[in-house]
Amino acid sequence: MRTLIPFIAAAWFVMPQPAGAQSRCADCHFANMDASFAEHISDWERSAHGRAAVGCESCHGGDAGTFESVLAHRNILPPSHRASPVNRINLPATCGKCHAGPFAVFQESRHFALLRAGDPNPPTCSTCHGEVAADLLSPKGLEGQCARCHGADRTYQRTEYPAQARLMLQNIRDVRVQLKEAESLIRRVKDTARRAELTAAADQVRVPLTEAAHAGHAFRFEGLQERVDTARVRVTALLERLANR
Length: 245
Fold this sequence. Notes:
By secondary structure, the protein is mainly α. Helix content is about 60%, strand content about 0%. The protein is built from 13 helices and no strands. The longest helix is centred in the last third of the chain and has 26 residues, at about 160-185. The termini are far apart. The relative contact order is 0.14.
């Protein structure tokens, strides 16, 4: 059985620019604010991409080393152009330059095959994560996105997918909240050996969560709930150990 659960592990491999790197593209666009780009570049500035100095040129191309408009925009193609790196068909490969893990498993999905075949309906990276903001959809938001194709009277069948997606993402988020609480308590442990032991246990919680993220990006339901349940059992045991110190 397969399901549609686009989920991103927020900390999955993001390649930052070298220390001190700065995008002249962003500087120039901020200085010459165009209403049509205002929201786009503001989203970028607040995002993990902006904080890591992953500039406009990383996705759109162009020359970030000059403020001369013609030179800076040379060879940039509009997103509607089939050869543009931000065209919806090419976007997974563009994002995959930094997000190698999600891209690798996304290629295993039915969505990717349909996308490469030119079907206009399957999701691409920006469908669930926004164009530049690196959003993480809420469970209800994810359900809504899935329902655009898998809702009643929509393009594809399997109307149970949207609700399943919402439930799976909610379960994953709940376990992550528990893990974050456990990590906060672990940092307060003064005994070095015990803190190292508890940290190792926290790492073991992340293993099935990462596996669940892999299954989500491949849109695979098989075993996903089992992975989440394993993570929940481990984090519950960890919190009990911290409570009984």
